[in-house]
Write a structure and sequence with these properties.
Blueprint (H helix, E strand, L loop, with lengths): L3 E5 L3 H19 L7 E5 L2 H9 L3 H17 L4 E4 L8 H7 L7 H11 L4 E5 L2 H5 L1 H9 L3 E3 L3 H13 L8 H16 L4 E4 L4 H4 L9 E3 H14 L2
Helix pairs in contact: 1-11, 3-4, 5-7, 5-11
Length: about 230
């Protein structure tokens, strides 16, 4: 079994989902008392959030690259980030390490293709919805992306940072998300990507009018499959 190097704390709610999913899936595949081999470096989300608010992605890239290198030096066999938005700098991180980097958008695209879906809605932070790092990966697999209109993107971004990443999950917020998903369905989306781990903590898949692709679960299971591969 390979050792998974995880950059976590972005947020710790997200990291906890990754940790439990990776170990549950490892046990499911291997049985007995098996769990995953993990090296976890969890940062203070407040520090990251301040850099994000300043739009200082150079500092973020340096911070996360340094952590990836530390995990590599600590004998991780591959690296993953337990979150979506910081993948904006994933390509830069990849260039600074010698071990594989498991990209959340690439793994999500593979899963979507397995379901013969070609047009999806993408929900996440403004950085995830409006930048190309996620949408371009989907496009490489022949998947088109629809994002919410501006006012809905503003609502989603604000709710993620002011509520969800602090552990606040309100019914009114969930209801607004469900309305947004309904609108995206009328615009041609065949499924919706939860491109923020905390969204799955707010909305159950069965509550959505569209099939849900939860990036954190897809990413976590992909990590286990890679860890157990030859």
């Amino acid at each position: 079994m390979k050792t998974i190097g995880i950059i976590g704390g972005l947020s710790w709610f997200s990291t906890s989902v990754y940790y439990s999913t990776i170990n549950e899936y490892t046990h499911q595949l291997l049985g007995e008392s098996h769990s995953a081999r993990i090296l976890l470096y969890s940062i203070d989300f407040h520090d990251f959030k301040l850099l994000q608010e300043k739009d200082d992605w150079t500092a973020i890239e340096n911070l996360l690259s340094d952590i990836a290198i530390k995990l590599e030096n600590a004998s991780a066999d591959f690296i993953m980030m337990a979150t979506n938005t910081p993948h904006l700098v994933a390509d830069s991180i990849r260039k600074k390490i010698r071990i594989p980097f498991l990209h959340i958008a690439e793994e999500t695209a593979k899963e979507i293709i397995n379901h013969n879906i070609s047009q999806v809605a993408l929900l996440g932070t403004r950085f995830t919805m409006e930048n190309d790092f996620f949408k371009e990966r989907l496009s490489q697999f022949g998947i088109g992306t629809i994002i919410p209109e501006t006012k809905d993107r503003d609502f989603i971004h604000q709710s993620i940072f002011e509520e969800l990443t602090t552990g606040v999950f309100l019914k009114d917020t969930k209801d607004e998300y469900l309305k947004i998903i309904d609108k995206l369905k009328t615009e041609g989306a065949e499924a919706v990507i939860f491109g923020c781990t905390e969204l799955a903590l707010l909305i159950k898949a069965e509550e959505s009018s569209l099939p849900v692709f939860d990036t954190s679960v897809i990413h976590a299971k992909a990590a286990v499959n890679f860890a157990l591969s030859d």
